[in-house]
Design brief:
73% of the residues lie in helices and 0% in strands. The protein contains four helices and no strands. The N and C termini lie far apart (34 Å).
């Protein structure tokens, strides 16, 4: 894996951790929700430069998506 891939994986881990904490759910559930989310798909595709957004912004996007 290249440096960009490692940086993305670390960002995903921070997002999942913060999402689990804020939603009050287990990490495994937060991880499953994240990797099956539209937000994750958009991050993977590089849409709207979401990877440049803060972790907390992306957590808020996930919370909105699953409301």
């Amino acid at each position: 894996m290249d440096a960009v891939g490692i940086i993305k994986q670390l960002k995903y881990a921070r997002i999942i951790n913060a999402f689990a904490e804020q939603a009050g759910i287990p990490l495994s559930q937060a991880m499953d929700m994240f990797y099956h989310s539209i937000t994750f798909q958009l991050l993977q595709e590089g849409i709207a430069d979401l990877h440049c957004r803060s972790d907390l912004y992306l957590v808020d996007e996930l919370k909105r998506e699953f409301q």
